[in-house]
Amino acid sequence: MTVRVRFAPSPTGYLHVGGGRTALYNWLFARHLGGVFVLRSDDTDTERNTPEYQTDILDSLTWLGIDWDEGIGAGGPHGSYRQSDRSARYRQVAESLVASGAAYYDGATPTQIEAIRVEAEAAGASPVYDGRHRLSAAEAAARIAAGNPPPVRLAVPRPGETRFVDVVRGEIVFSHDNVDDFVMLRSDGSPTYHLASTVDDVDYLITHVIRGEDILPSTPKHILITEVMGGVRPEYAHLSLLNGPDGKKLSKRHGDTAIRAYRDAGFLPGAVRNFLAILGWSPGDDEEIVSLETMIERFDLGAVSRNPAVFDIAKLEWMNGHYLRAMPAAEFVAAALPIVESDLGRTLTVAESEAFGAVAPLVQERAKRLTEITPQVRFLVEEEIAYDPASWDKVMTTIEAGAALDGAAAALESLDVWSVTSVEAALRGMLEQTGLSAGKGLQPIRVAV
RNA sequence: GCCCCCAUCGUCCAGCGGCCUCGGACGCCGGCCUUUCAAGCCGGAAACACGGGUUCGAAUCCCGUUGGGGGCACCA
User: Fold this and answer.
1) φ, ψ (nearest 5 deg) of residue A191
2) Which residue ranges in chain A fall short of pLDDT 50?
3) Where are any strands of DSSP class E within A176-228?
4) Do residues A150 and A135 touch, judged by C-beta distance below 8 A?
5) Helix (H) or strand (E) run with residue A317 in it
6) What is the pLDDT of residue A24?
């Protein structure tokens, strides 16, 4: 049987680095096994969805080098792969589950739900709704006829439990005492996430659901729906979440969380992809710079770490620098030139491009990000030279600065020919005379120049 | 309050009962190289959360404690 996985983001924000990692793991898993990677859009939240986010998610995945075999924009046998186009199907499933007795129309008011919560808390129990206010067929029919349809809830078997073996976490058991009769179909006829997502997984014949740990507690609901639908239960794998340096969930206050922000900050897609792959998974040996081919060849869901991982920007920067240095010179220039031009606000002349090409290998050695290049080459193309007051002060206020400068001036004045070798010889002579070290004596000259 | 997950250096990963006085990477510190800064090379500090078991033997298995994370909507 061919493996089928899916990545199903909601277009309610830019693609998050955590989402990027989830997508990557799904993709690696599929590629490793020769399976099918489906991209679906869980866009049932019409209030928060935007086309801009939808576009960003697609662009970010593509930038990371993740392609999909089926789904949004790629087509496939299951329609548009957008949940917003499938409301009729979700409603149909909900109604058939009501007909079979697996679900019911519910009449609980918010006040009643709240009362149950308070009661449970007082008793030290889980605040679960158990269906005590379900409507009879006649009552439900009356409300539907009156244009005031009730929501549909799943009748969770009580007592009972749902158990499954999570591919990364092992056996997991949830007592139904902690799973409530959740809403599947809202009173306005729209599906909730649990219904839509599960129906899609069943309809699209998904074999492995690989997603964030944040939805681990919802998994029994999804398994229950799958079973009453008569669907085949997929394998589940819940990935640990990404944290900030303080151990808290990675969020804006820790820095950038969107994949696009890293692209804009001058990171290479290969480096980001490598970093994300290694964050929670190891190819086995001690090597951490790993090629795409190796990743695909060795990826193993069962070997994925259960620990929450801290997103360490410093390591990403190191890795990006490594990838930058590993690029062939021409490729580096090709990647850097557009950014330099964009920073400068104009295109470079042929001569300038050539000058840039000549110094590029020098900056390639020391840049950690593509965005660090422009400041280093600006002097090549601008008449006005800006200097950094901080470094000026730091060097020029040293007691050796005056002697170094005077000595250098004298030494250079006496030169007939200015060449690399003659200038160097003159300056070395100056160092000799003044007794200054290379660092103390040459740095002021460098800054002055 | 209730439920679930997690627990090896500051951070990520390796270790899946003896090969461990725990290995690698980033970061940090020191040195070498070097006309700066990087890069590179060499070296160093740095961890099995705690308490009980199981076992001839535990970082590895079990239980508890503590700590951290996630979830408990007609949001996804």
Assistant:
1) -85, 150
2) none
3) 183-185, 208-212
4) yes
5) helix A313-326
6) 98
Clarify whether A394 is annotated catalytic: no
Q: What is the pLDDT of residue A272?
A: 98
Nearest residue (CA) to C1' of B67:
A247
Q: Which nucleotide is nearest to A192 (CA to C1')?
A: B74
A236 and A166 Cβ atoms separated by less than 8 Å: yes
Percent helix, percent strand, percent coil in chain A, to nearest 5? 55, 10, 35
Buried residues in A289-298 as b, exposed as e (16+ CB within 10 A): ebeeeebeeb
Give the contacts of A187 (CB within 8 A, at least 6 positions apart).
A148, A149, A150, A151
CA pair distance A176, A124, nearest whole angstrom: 16
pLDDT at res. A424: 74
Q: What is the pLDDT of residues A41-84, one digit of tens each?
A: 999 888 889 999 999 999 999 999 999 999 999 999 999 999 99
* Chain B bases near protein CB atoms (7 A cut-off): 1-8, 10-14, 23-27, 35-40, 68-76
Whether residue A94 contacts residue A53, with contact meaning beta carbons closer than 8 Å, is answered with no
Nearest to A40 by CA among A193, A259, A233: A193
Positive or negative, the CA dihedral A202, A206, A209, A214 is negative
CA A91/CA A88 separation, integer angstroms: 5
pLDDT at A212: 96
Q: What is the DSSP string of A101-163?
A: TSEEEB---HHHHHHHHHHHHHHT------STTBPPHHHHHHHHHTT-PPPEEE---SS-EEE
Q: Can you point out the beta strands (E) in A275-390?
A: 309-310
Exactly one of A248, A249, A252, A394 is catalytic; which is it? A252
